[in-house]
Amino acid sequence: MDVVLPDWLGADDWARWCRHRKALRRPLTEDAVRLQLLELDKLRQRGVSPASVIDHSIGNGWTGLFAPKGAVVPQSRADRNAEWSRGMDEAIASARAGGRPMKDMGVADVTRNH
């Protein structure tokens, strides 16, 4: 699988992560790569270096990427809501791109008092 790494992620750090996963007999799928790069970017935007996340996760023998405790700047409620909304948009787009049928459930107006 060919992966184009973002500029902010060192190729050596990513290679170490891939070797770790392979050694645990949990090689990365294309979906896992995409999601883990998104997670690294989220953490990077919140002030945590991708190398420290990879080091921490390898050091603990984990198959997922997690920031060291205390390394993440807390998100505001607005940021959490925006992140959730982006995640939902990505999930819907992915389902549609994969040809999975989507049922339109409509939109609930929760802003008005009834």
Walk me through the structure.
53% of the residues lie in helices and 0% in strands. The chain is an all-alpha fold. α1 runs parallel beside α3. The longest helix is centred in the last third of the chain and has 21 residues, at 77-97. It is globular, with a radius of gyration of 17 Å. The termini are far apart.
**Tally of individual helices:** 4
- Give a short account of the largest sheet: none
The amount of beta strand, in percent, is: under 5%
- The span between the termini is 53 Å
Total beta strands: 0
Stretches where pLDDT falls below 50 for ≥5 residues? none
**Given the helix and strand composition, which structural class is it?**
mainly alpha
Rough shape?
globular
- Oligomer category: single chain
SSE run: HHHH
Q: Could you report the average pLDDT, rounded to the nearest whole number? A: 87
Using only CA atoms, what is the Rg?
A: 17 Å
Considering DSSP H and I runs of 4 or more, what fraction of the residues is helical?
40-55%
